[in-house]
Specification:
The structure is a single chain. By secondary structure, the chain is α+β, with helices and mostly antiparallel strands. The protein has a single domain, classed as Nucleoside diphosphate kinase-like domain (Alpha-Beta Plaits, 2-Layer Sandwich). It is built from seven helices and four strands. It has a four-stranded antiparallel beta sheet. Bound molecules: inosine-5'-diphosphate (IDP). Belongs to the NDK family.
């Protein structure tokens, strides 16, 4: 296993339900360290840029509208195997298919509003972290 970083977003539905602390607990219990974090309310341009790879998909407009509907919590997580570990904690994209005990099984109701985002690979993680955080905003542990 390698030490990795991944980009996580607590989406507007989960922030609205006051679940930031509960979701952070899942990350920390699994050994993922929060090395950068900020609350943001994305503009249409920011959401479209973040999800640019999906711009031809039929759900793109609804996804951008949802992601701009309220504040989100954005964090970089660091740990052994962080990309896969975070995806395992999140569960499947469609909450109806997510394993019991995952964030999406516990906190999401629909595929459109599914509580969390997590990078799907080390390469996309680097790009997504850089989309939201400068190098100076990343704070690895020193103790
Ligand atoms: P992921 O978030 O599990 O990585 P992606 O396929 O990258 O899933 O899709 C990004 C986001 O787009 C999903 O989290 C979900 O909010 C939305 N999405 C994906 N597929 C659909 C769909 O079929 N209908 C509606 N929304 C979708």
């Amino acid at each position: 296993m390698a030490l990795e970083r991944t980009l996580s977003i607590i989406k507007p539905d989960a922030v609205a339900k006051n679940l930031v602390g509960a979701i952070y607990s899942r990350f920390e219990s699994a050994g993922l360290r929060i090395v950068a974090a900020k609350m943001m309310h994305l503009s249409k341009e920011q959401a479209e840029g973040f999800y640019a790879e999906h711009k031809e998909r039929p759900f793109f407009a609804a996804l951008v509208e949802f992601m701009t509907s309220g504040p989100i919590m954005v964090q970089a997580l660091e740990g052994e195997d962080a990309v896969k570990k975070n995806r395992d904690i999140m569960g499947a994209t469609n909450p109806a298919e997510a394993l019991a005990g995952t964030l999406r099984a516990d906190y999401a109701e629909t595929i459109d509003e599914n509580a969390v985002h997590g990078s799907d690979a080390v390469e996309s993680a680097a790009r997504e972290i850089a989309y939201f955080f400068s190098d100076e905003e990343i704070c690895p542990r020193t103790r």
